[in-house]
From TrEMBL:
Transmembrane residue ranges: 12-33, 53-72
Family: Belongs to the UPF0719 family.
Keyword Membrane: yes
Pfam assignment, any one: DUF350
Protein name per the record: DUF350 domain-containing protein
Keyword Cell membrane: yes
Keyword vocabulary terms for this entry: Cell membrane, Membrane, Transmembrane, Transmembrane helix
């Protein structure tokens, strides 16, 4: 098995493109949730130390990331 067979450039490029698209979708979902909620999420988490909101928002980010990764993997 040669090195060219092991490292196929089209798979690397596809992986990079899907990763970039996934990151963009994740940031877009974050931005939409930030606009929908009445309070500024970062202000609540960082300045007011709202740990419950931090946990809920972390779960949201993980859930969106799992959805994106399963969509890319399929």
């Amino acid at each position: 098995m040669s090195l060219n067979e092991l490292i196929n450039m089209k798979y690397i490029i596809a992986s990079l493109v899907y990763s970039i698209i996934g990151i963009i979708v994740l940031f877009l979902a974050f931005w939409i949730i930030e606009k929908i909620t009445p309070e500024n999420i970062w202000k609540e988490i960082l300045e007011k130390q709202n740990m419950a909101l931090a946990v809920v928002f972390a779960a949201f980010i993980i859930a969106i990331a799992l959805i994106i990764s399963s969509a890319i993997h399929s």
